[in-house]
Structure formats: C-alpha cells, structure tokens
Amino acid sequence: xxxxxxxxxxxxAALSLQNLAFALIGCLLGTLIGVLPGLGPAAGTxxxxxxxxxxxxxxxxxxxxxxxxxxxxxxxVTSVLINVPGEAASVITCIDGHQMAKQGRGGTxxxxxxxxxxxxxIVATIALVVVAPPLAQVALKFGPPEFFALMLVGLCLITGxxxxxxxxxxxMAILGLLIAMVGIDPxxxxxxxTLGIPSLYDGLGFIPVVMGLFGVAEILLGIGQPRHQVIKTxxxxxxxxxxxxxxxxxxxxxxxxxxxxxxxxxGVGAIIxxxxxxxxxxxxxxxxxxxxxxxxxxxxxxxxxxxxxANAAMIPLLTLGIPSxxxxxxxxxxxxxxxxxxxxxxxxxxxxxxxxVIASFFLGNILLLVxxxxxxxxxxxxxxxxxxxxxxGTLLFCIIGAYSLQQNVFDIGVMIVCGIIGYGMRKIDMxxxxxxxxxxxxxxxxxxxxxxxxxxxxxFSIFFTRPLCLTLLVxxxxxxxxxxxxxxxxxxxxxxxx
Length: 498
Known about the structure:
Largest sheet: 2 strands, antiparallel
Number of helices: 22
Mean pLDDT: 83
C-alpha cells in the first residue's frame, strides 16, 4: 500500500503543469536527438544537461529522463528511412524496417515501432514500481564493504562486456578511476594529480568530460560521414493490418520481457536486448525466411525490447546506485550535480523526487506515443537538414553548456581535449563506456574502500569474511574470467560498446 501511495503522490507531482512541460520538452529533444544520425542518447543527454542547471532537481531529472527514453525511440526514424541507426539500439531495426520502407510500408514500420516502444516502456515501468522498493530495502542492509564489492561487480560487467578486448576495457576503466582521483584528497586534504593547476583542485568536471567524450567526439566523427539518401515511402498509413497485428502482438510481448530482464544486468548495453529479441523471434517463426525482407516482427520485437530495456535499466541506478550503461552514468552524474546520490537511501531521503521521476516515465511514454504517431512525417523532414548546420549548432551548444557550468573557460578546454581524446579512442576502437563508469563510480569506490578499512582498522580480510561481500567479489572475478575467455558471442560484445 505504501508503494501505491507513493506512486500516486509521484503521479500528482509529475502531472503538475511545470513537470508535465519538462517531460514534454524532454520527449521532444530526445526524439530530435534520436532522429539526428550520430548523436546517441549518451551524447544527447550529456550535451543537454546544462539546460537543467536552473531547474529544481525533480524537474531537471524528469526532463533528462525523458530525453533519454525519447532518444531511444527517435533512432527508429533514421533506421527505417535512411537505413542508418540514429542510436546504437536501433541497428537491428534497419534490417526489416528499411525493407518495409522500400516496399512502401515505412509508415507501418514506424507505427508498430511506436506502439511496441510504448508497450515495452509502460510494462517495464510497472515492473520497476513493483521491483524497486523491495530491492532498495534489501540494499539498505548493505555495509560499505558490500557496496564496494557491488560497485566492483558493476564496473567489471561494463568492462568485460564493453568491447572486443578485456585488456582495452580494463585500461579504460583504470583511466576513468585515475581521472576521478584528480583534485583534493578527501581525507588528507592534499592535492592529487593536479599538476599545480588551481582549476584542477576541485577535480575534472564530470559534465565537460562527458560532453567532450560523447558530444564533441560524435561531432568530429559525424563530419567525416557521407550524407545518406532519405527513401520516399508511404507515411500516411501508420497502423498495421489485421494480419500484421496478429504477427506483432506476440513479438511485442516477448521483446518486452527480454528487454526488461536484460535491462536489470549492468553492462549489457542497449543493443544486446534488441539483438536477442530479433534472433529469438526469427528462430520462433515458422517462416524465418521472411526476416531480412520486411518482416514486421523484426521491427516490433527489437523496438519493444529497446524501450523495455531503457526503463528497466533505471532499476539498478535507483535502487543500488549502479549505472548500467554510459547513458545511465550520465543520468547518475545529473543526480549528483543536483546534490542527490542514487541508491537505496534515495527512497528514504527523497521519496517525493524518486516517485515523481518514476511516475513521469508513464507520462513520458504516453507523450512519446502521441508525438510520434501523428507527427512522424514532421520528424522525417528533419532528416533533410544539412548536417553542417547540425554539427555547428551542436558544437556551439556544447561550448555554451560547458562554460555555463562554472563560468570558467578552463571547462571549455577540458571538453575540447576530451573530445579529441574520445575521437581518437573511437578510431582505435577503445571502449568509452568503462572510462565513464570509472569516472562516475571512482569517488564512491574510494569512499566505500576507505570506510571499510576504517571499520577493520586497515585489515583487508573484512572483504572476505562477510558472506555477501565475498559472493559479490567472486562474481566480479567470474565476470572477468568469462570475459577473458570471450564467452559471449562476438556480435553481442561489439554491440555493448554503446
């Protein structure tokens, strides 16, 4: 009953005119980011965080969350109409979605994608409401050693699944942890890795770093990309036929289940649920030869999995404080900027904020359905914008956003340097996700480690004498060993880099 009461209170807050406007703006911006090829959810969310600096925490997080799941849908438009995914999770939609567009069924492909995304998002949010409170209650029993081990598991999952090479993932994770240590030592009060530069005494700002690694790097990569031809197709007929409904309903249900389950596991990434849903649907089909030639199930299943994953991935963040993907890590950064620490204590300390954000997921999914079904033609027109204008506008916005954080030109320099580094990392196929996770989890890992050692008077056996902590450490080891042995299929490993 407490959960229902909290949800109703959250729904009341989310339905206020102000928060409803933030959700609408977030959905619009998120869809726009998804529609623009190259700018994925992580880059888009990072770039747009400065827009929320002047908002109250609840409004800011509602807007950023809406940007996140709005971008997850927007990528479908480019997948279907130009065969280029707007974001990584829409890669698999290109296969049958673009074929449907070439057959004059582009409107139906986008229609079933919107409906599948809506169902996946709503069902996953209902499951979030059911699962999150008891999970947060369990997490409240964790001590510093257990939290240290839990964050280590999350970091290992992201590192292990975050690229083609475990060594590359570990290197990037360690680099992220080292960057997180820049600044004043919280215990001794002495500068660390500051090189005598006063602007580094407070550490490297999370926002300039991620804006550079994601935003500026994506701009540099996008400048070299050729312009793709937008296919002309029928966008007037959005609803599937009776036969297409029959084929899609089961696919939407199964895709939702797969997306939700995989969304609970940190490190899986957004593309793996869509890939698994597509393969599962193809193997289940009595006519698998239709896949790749415009099968509507090939759009319905991955798009449902995509949005179910997006909402389910919020559960580890809200209940355990563990970001499961780079985009969720950016959202965690937004929580921290607003003076909030995601995790079980957030449910006790700020239930008004947590439940307002969760309730906004329901409203956001409804808004996305309303925005995307009738206005799909309008979104398609954005694809005709000259890319040079888009990149120039995005870079200008990044510069203004980085400066507005502390009115410090130094932050612009940090962003540009990180952008060049991020561009170079992409070119040599080094995963960015472990670096960002190391950067965001670094201070929490350090705090948990130091508190644990204070509890044990410096004795490291505290991590091996507590059953839950030991179990988590063993799990972290298994993840690393399995990753070293390359147990997951290569396609899944490549897909998890976003």
